């Protein structure tokens, strides 16, 4: 379990997203309200963003400390200004190293992704089957040992044969459904992906409770989060649905 | 606020003290029950211990990670076997670096010490007055910037002119009382100290609620803790009292 | 001993300063050429910069890892674009924690500073005398225990009564000279300071060899460094001199 | 490239092995003499040891900092006393996270192992072929992404069908030779392994220079190291040979 944040719209300072809201990602780290598993999100964190004006691969900043203990983040949050941001505070599986490689977002070329959820007993269940079906490129991409990174590696592969990012996420979930059934393995897969031009999110689980996912649309931006960060007209993304935030901020919700 | 543990008696594996109890120090790190301030104790931790058979300066192991995320501690807890142990999980003051220098226990020659509590607005109140009265030795000893380390440095000085460790702790608290009054500064000062031959603890506060402190005596050992770690005949150390655990495991409780 | 870099001029990506040159700060970290003490600069590092267009307090990023091992820096170096940058790779005094608080640059309000050099046996010599003469503000500012930070705290105080940053640096060096003589303590003090509108540097030592400091002026910028980073018309700042890089990129060199 | 140390014999303090020798592992970290690739060994380190008297799984302590910057190690080196020790200072492949999972020694049940050398372009060459032939147990064991850990995982598998540890190491090298030839991939594989009852080492390379490996036998112990640590009757292990240090300290050298 983690807490996710995706932002698409007018460029804003990271601060506005990560620290300033009443129930900011920092607060969700030590006092989350809607976790379906785990107590805290204090096992590292990460932020990824696209440049507001310049064409460039996205940028990431990750740390293994609890987000509230990272002094560098205070400077970076005052400096970084972006119109497309993904952020994550992590609740790790017990007994694994809180290595940087296990912190999100994951990045590949122009693609960023974050995941909230888990594959049950991952190393004993879908770990090897998921790896075995990866292309060499996606296989070699993997640096850590989280289920999240293996799902992201699957997205990398599916993107090769999909019409767009929404379809790639849909196909990835189908791969998980099939493997989950074949190996009788429950999983939950709330994901937020971006290529800088759009934001795509999923809310999905099989055999375990579906984690929450909310979105908020206003005139100049869309927020997608695990938990509402302030009072406002937040809407729950329906279970088993995909959300696409297009470049013009129009939304599509499609059942999975 | 932190959570403290002191053990004196038959040598035991660290594991037995830190991880195995139902409400172990690890659990108190992410789910404490009796905090008078703060929510978690996830801003680093530390363990100090004396050799079970060999005469030597005590040993310390400290880390800035939450205690539950330190994989090395799992090995060390299975290896280290000691009859005199002090341990601490830390709840830091917001905005300060979670540096190693700010993690407890503090060690000076054969002395180990841990502190739970705080001096209100420390840097603006007693910080400079406390330093100004230190000997050069105690002054130069200080590595970090916590109120706790400055209290420990005062113990180092008071020990020079005290008959024993209990008296040194008593004198240290008197220094705090006087400075606290002179500068109208509330503070709380639950401490556990040891020189390897005895354990001394205090429960004291001035102008703020006194943090809890419990002890448990059985045939071969005495435990002193912020929160009871398992079902048993724990007794609350009365407010404004000193507890001395003598080498023969006899206890003295004296009012401050 | 550390290696210093100061940049003032047209906004550039950090990458251009830190990683890309042949003898970049990264290379100087593991293979420095002109150290007067120490072998490596692998005990942490830091970068500070001012916003290229927006009025704001400067930003800092520091880490205790060797600079070559920081994956986040790769992203930040591609993202951060600034016309006024200070950076430092650190060679620590043995036996002290490589805490974040001991990493440079130091920042206070709009002021950034870095220091290469050392005060001999600092904790036993000028540590307490330097602290004793600080204002409460500068005293409370100090987070770590390096000589460098204590010199920077003295700058904070001297700035209050100086006409400009150059004068404040000059006065700070005079304080060091007097204290150094009074306590028979050799020291070296190559510093680079900025307030975002200018860069000021010193090359000075008393009783020990003066560390190197070079500058390079071209049409749109001035670089000040411990070691030349690429082939070019680098000039050694004369010993016991101050260098001022004015806002219009004009240079002043004045003897100390 | 890394620097290795194996010790078997009378129990000694870690200090005696790691810090006190003239050319100790700490010195080899910042000033190695016989590296065939790389300049430093400052990308983390680790120590593994067996209990001197009690039957138990071995213990490990690893850190991503340079070994000279680990303050905890100073305490542990004064405390830990063992008759069977493996230690490693690491020189990482550029661009990979210096994660704990990539630090050695590796441990599986009673087995400890360290590796000096590399598989050329590992992720593009033998990474996937090596994983594909692993048992599920060895596959799931892997936590990081080093070639070293994949070689160790192969040892885990080979041990299942080998008469002893020496044979398991020999079989592992044969696997590497075959895969190396099949994929035209040079590699070097200096390894030290132990199960607490013996020490086994290899010196081997294919298509690249063989790293050095020395041993020193005295009345009560045997040392195996990448670089001699002090003046003494060190002997170079011949290229393409295995060294077995039996429980009675007798040595066997057999060609691979």
TrEMBL record, chains A, B, C, D:
Keyword presence, Transmembrane helix: no
Q: Which of UniProt's keywords are assigned here?
A: Glutamine amidotransferase
Where in the numbering of this chain does the Glutamine amidotransferase type-2 domain appear? Answer: 2-256
Where exactly are the transmembrane stretches of this chain? none
BP-aspect Gene Ontology terms: ergothioneine biosynthetic process
- A Pfam entry, by short name: GATase_4
CDD domains documented for this protein: YafJ (cd01908)
NCBIfam families assigned to the protein according to its UniProt record, in alphabetical order:
ergothioneine biosynthesis protein EgtC
Q: What is the recorded name of this protein? A: Ergothioneine biosynthesis protein EgtC
Which organism was this protein described from? Leptolyngbya boryana CZ1
Gene name, per UniProt, is egtC
